Amino acid sequence: MLIDFSMQNYKSFKAETVLSAEAGERLRKFQATHTVVMNGKRLLKNLLIFGPNGSGKSNLLAGLKQMQTIVLNDPGKVTDLLTADRFVLAPETQLSDTTFSVTFSVGQRIYGYQFSYNAKQISYECLTITEKRRPKVYFERSAQGFKTSVPALNEVAKRTKKNSLVLYTAMQNNDCVATEVFTWFAEDLLFVGDYQPTPVVSELVGLAKNEQVKNQLLNFLHFADFNIVDLEVNEQPTMPDSHLAAFSANPSYPSYSSYQMMNKLFAVHKVYDEAGNMIGTKSLAMESESRGTQKILIIALAFINAELNGNHKTLLFDEFDDSLHLELSQAMIRIFNSAASQTQFILTTHELQLLDSELRTDQIYLVEKDFKGESQLTSLFDFKDTRHTTRGGISYMKRYVEGRFGATPIIEPDKMLDALIDTEQNMTKLSGH
User: Fold this and answer.
1) Predicted structure pTM score
2) Residues in contact with 238: Cβ distance below 8 Å, sequence separation at least 6, in sequence order
3) Could you state a single Gene Ontology molecular function term (predicted)?
4) Is the pLDDT of residue 198 over 90?
5) CA-CA distance, 98 to 231, in Å (whole number)?
6) CATH number, domain with residue 355
7) For the chain, is the Cβ count within 10 Å smaller at the N or the C terminus?
8) What is the largest CA-CA distance in the chain?
């Protein structure tokens, strides 16, 4: 699971910003359900990030997504440019590198991985391993050279392009540590948006081939009030629709061999005539279902996968509530933080009523943007009067709206209307009517 993520000089985040999933010190509330201990660290199963429109909360997850993208995609040529999306509202940041850093727990180890980069090169890279609470540097790359405790990595570093990561080259050379770190980024860090036919999603969808798992999903959907009566999983090649149509008409279509087979999920719905009588069923591809249905199914599959395989994935949702009604969002928060949950869920949301869910204060983060355009991330746990309270009936939503924690939008509807009316009047004057 994710322990923490930090970044600096990326989009609206100028200063170093840390999102931590490590439980707050001496906070006992919901400890047995909302937290899990891995390699000696007590980690939170769920983080919620609140903030007004334009505050930068989506940029926070975008930074982790960008780090993942750079890790998984090695530039083909030394002249290929890296995506350097710096903070643009200060002249000094245009000359500075962007830095990403992540700490996570896998198996019996804790890994720390960090790199800094600009459009042309990786300027710094470091991988550390902590076993039995003893950290050691596995390798470190900087302008001063390359240091490692593994002699074979010296040759790997020499073969690494200036715009490539040593981690990627080491993984290609079957280094077991680099492979485990790379695999975490590729398989255990999952960004959930619209349903996408990726290898990770294909693996999760494949679980529904098991009749027992399928029945679990159908019961889950029934109690969540979704009108889906059955689920089907078919293997299909990942190819453009035009190619897929040609392949369906001719299985020996030559393009088939160049495409990977993926598990595709279909939802079965009842079909009714005009009189309301059921006359059959129809299968719809998951891509044609609502975003809410897609999200709920991926969440359920990840939950079941962790139950079956003990695979502690970290799932991230941007604008979690934008396709779910409040009651369903609240129900999912309860599931995320249940004793049975073995998966980590990190989400951004506009739904302030979720602030009053059964949450620990260290699970709640707030994002606001100052007058200089810089996004600031704060944990509710950082407010001293929230740390040790165990009293019921305290509305964090009410205190947030009152501005007790900052991060509240300043909206003046009357002046907004006046601005629109002024625009209309000005246009009338310009047109001479």
Assistant:
1) 0.83
2) 197, 259, 260, 261, 262
3) ATP binding
4) no
5) 44
6) 3.40.50
7) C
8) 81
